[in-house]
Amino acid sequence: MPRPHPHASTHRLLLRLRVVDPPHAVPWAVQLGRSDLLAPVRRDSNAFEFEIPLELVTTADAAATVRGPAVQGPRGARFVYLTSGKRAGDLRSPWDRRAKISLETLPIEAIRARPADRVLALDGEIHGTAKDGGPSCASVRLIGGSWVLSPPSE
Question: Collapsing DSSP states into helix, strand and coil, what is residue 111?
Fold first, then answer.
C-alpha cells in the first residue's frame, strides 16, 4: 500500500539523455506524441545529449505519474522514443528506427523528497549503436540501469 502523501505536488524534471557512440552521420530526434519530432540532433562528436522536459505529478492519495509532451505509454509503463534516420527527418537515410527508453526506473521517492519549487535534473545514457552497426532501436536499456538524480544545486 502506498504511503500517504501530505498533498498533491508537481515536480518539474529535465531528463538529460546522452547517446554514446552513435553511428556516424545519422540524425536523431525525440518523438512527441504520435509523430511530431523535438529538435533533431545531428552527431558532431562521439556523443550527444537530449534535454527532455517532464513532470512528476503526485496526487493526494500518493499516486505518482509522469507526464509531458514526449511521454508515451500507459500509466505504470511510461517511456520516451528516440527516433533515428528517416524517422528523424532524413528521408535519404538507410535507417528508419525508434529506440524505446523506459521511465520506469526514475527514482520517484528521491524526486518526491526534493522541493517542488525548482527543476530537477536526471541523467541517463544509452549506447547509440546496435549490434548490426545501425542506430539503437527497440527497447534500449540505460547504461547503469537507471536514471540518476543530479545532486541539488547550491
Answer: helix
The domain spans of the chain are 9-147
**pLDDT, one tens digit for every residue, the chain (154 residues):** 444 445 678 999 999 999 999 999 899 999 998 877 776 665 557 889 999 999 999 887 888 899 999 999 998 899 999 999 999 989 999 999 999 999 999 999 999 999 999 999 999 999 999 999 999 999 999 999 999 998 766 4
Quote the pTM value. 0.87
DSSP secondary structure of 3-71: PP-SS-EEEEEEEEEEEESPPTT--EEEEETTTEEEEEE--SSSEEEEEEEEEEEE-TT--EEEESTT-
Cβ neighbours around 47 below 10 Å, total = 13
Mention every residue, 6+ apart, whose C-beta is less than 8 A from residue 146: 105, 106, 107, 124
